[in-house]
Amino acid sequence: MIKLVALVRRKASLSxxxxxxxxxxxxxxxxxxIPGMRGYRINIAGxxxxxxxxxxxxxxxxxxxxxxxxxxxxxxPENDIAxxxxxxxxxxxxFLVVDEHVILPKSVA
Length: 109
Known about the structure:
With 109 residues, this protein is α+β, with helices and mostly antiparallel strands. It has helices at 16-31, 67-74, 77-85, and strands spanning 2-10, 37-44, 58-64, 90-98.
């Protein structure tokens, strides 16, 4: 399993509500069509409380079975469509390819 994490910053012209609505209801269905994806999660930043605000408005996590599956999905026409759509609601997008280490919940042996 390989995971792609996207860190995103919304267009300054969009309110936080409009950004979240577009991401979840317009962009997510386009991205979910990328072949080979095994999981897709969107994380929208909330009120940071007493912590300093983050430089990002959210993140997305996308799982693939392998690097080859990820490369094939990212080379697909569906990814081209989703990638082009990011221009409608994002000012900044960066990706991390990560190895996940689950700390909690602990697995039961």
